[in-house]
């Protein structure tokens, strides 16, 4: 079996971060929490949680209403957090990613170590999922043969069908929204 590398599916399209609203200079453009959720793909609850957890700097609040107002940099960071979260990165590692980011090129070896380790976690998970899919495909074929009354094919499939491999041990981490 050849091992070809395939590109992962594209993430859901997120609208571009608008540079400015009509009549508002780009440097001053801010986003409501609803706009930030639409642009990042994260829920309002998650945005608030990430702020409390220190993954975001405290978000500026509108003077009169005290509603959060997200700057374009905040939204860009939220989008990065959404991608890291979707990649299964634990919060402590996401926090570390941004700590290292502040050090620029000097932190490249540590950033690579962090990201390569997470990529390995995802590759292990993908192999596990492929194993589960093969198992389910075998079960589907078995039951299709049973339904069709093809006892010989069902028996042949049953004799080759093996249970899934147990999942690789993963470090436990508290669930986050």
What can you tell me about this protein's structure?
The chain has 177 residues and is mainly alpha-helical. It folds into 2 domains: 26-86, Multidrug-efflux Transporter Regulator, Chain: A, Domain 2 (Orthogonal Bundle); 91-166, no CATH class. The chain has helices at 33-40, 44-52, 72-86, 91-101, 108-147, 151-160; strands spanning 30-31, 60-61, 68-71. Strands 1-3-2 form a 3-stranded antiparallel sheet. It is elongated, with a radius of gyration of 23 Å. The two termini are 38 Å apart. Residues 1-11 have low confidence and may be disordered.
Write a brief structural summary:
With 177 residues, this protein is mostly helical. It has six helices and three strands. It folds into two domains: 26-86, Multidrug-efflux Transporter Regulator, Chain: A, Domain 2 (Orthogonal Bundle), CATH 1.10.1660; 91-166, no CATH class.
**Strand tally:** 3
Note poorly predicted spans.
Answer: 1-11
How much strand? under 5%
Number of domains: 2
The spatial strand order of the largest sheet comes to 1-3-2
**What is the approximate shape?**
elongated
Gyration radius, to the nearest Å?
23 Å
Helix percentage: 40-55%
Structural class: mainly alpha
Largest sheet: 3 strands, antiparallel
What integer is the average pLDDT?
A: 84
Give the SSE map.
Layout: E1 30-31, H1 33-40, H2 44-52, E2 60-61, E3 68-71, H3 72-86, H4 91-101, H5 108-147, H6 151-160
Antiparallel strand pairs: 1-3, 2-3
Helix pairs in contact: 4-5, 5-6
